Amino acid sequence: DTVFRTEGLTKVYDTGGAKVHALAGVDLELYAGELSVLLGPSGSGKSTLLNILGGLDHATGGRVWFRDLELTRLGDRALTRYRRNHVGFIFQFYNLVPSLSARENVQLVTDVAPNPMDAAEALERVGLKHRLDHFPAEMSGGEQQRVAIARAIAKRPEVLLCDEPTGALDSKTGVQVLEVLREINDEFGTSTVVITHNAGIRAMAHRVVRFADGRIASVEVNDTRVAPH
Ligand code: ADP
Ligand code: ADP
């Protein structure tokens, strides 16, 4: 099944004078249950695409679907509902609330989601059973990102969109965080899209989409995806 499909997707930023063609006609299909990675140089349009897929931003042309739902036809309220009901986000900087413990950060989501995991269960799932009552400042970067992953998966989203989740981590810690994403993808079948420069992702991804200048340069399917250990 297709989870996302785009057709001639464009995004033009008009910053008063110079127009930036961040996406210059993207036709892409991503499949349910897969872990897809977006690669390409800085400025090639990866974040712009991820934000449009996640309903955080509007395209300026073309069409995009989440399953049968055409996102490019939704108004802001419907787009917000789509985001809340279906999408988990993970960003480079963990966006945790510093005054709340790991458990309380996750509870911000589990208190309002329709069918959430227990906060402690979500944290246990990312290997942080021993950090439930720790505050962000008491945790390493990798641990903070795992709290952010727990928060994202706690509402059981169908898709996880990850924009440079390892960007602030050393490469070894980054691989550990990617392993957690891979395990979640394996266990729950969560369709996952990751932007990362960490080379460790290559063996974990089902599909590698390479961007250049707002277009797709290549799509590579990984037949040798390593099984979880
Ligand atoms: P990547 O994620 O591959 O680094 P981006 O999607 O962030 O690329 O950016 C694509 C292009 O769009 C770049 O030229 C970038 O400078 C431009 N861009 C991104 N966001 C904005 C914005 N809010 N306003 C103007 N230009 C932007
Ligand atoms: P909510 O009101 O439940 O936070 P939103 O639809 O406003 O839902 O946002 C969905 C998720 O995306 C939330 O976890 C929110 O923190 C995150 N989010 C939205 N916009 C941004 C952004 N620009 N930067 C970082 N996180 C964001």
UniProtKB/TrEMBL annotation:
PANTHER family: ABC TRANSPORTER ATP-BINDING PROTEIN MG467-RELATED, LIPOPROTEIN-RELEASING SYSTEM ATP-BINDING PROTEIN LOLD. The keyword Membrane applies. It holds the Pfam family ABC_tran. Keywords: ATP-binding, Cell inner membrane, Cell membrane, Membrane, Nucleotide-binding, Transport. This is ABC transporter ATP-binding protein. Residues 4-229 form the ABC transporter domain. It comes from the Bacteria. Belongs to the ABC transporter superfamily. Macrolide exporter (TC 3.A.1.122) family. GO terms for cellular component: membrane protein complex. InterPro entries: AAA+_ATPase (IPR003593), ABC_transporter-like_ATP-bd (IPR003439), ABC_transporter-like_CS (IPR017871), MacB-like_ATP-bd (IPR017911), P-loop_NTPase (IPR027417). One of its GO terms (molecular function) is ATP binding.
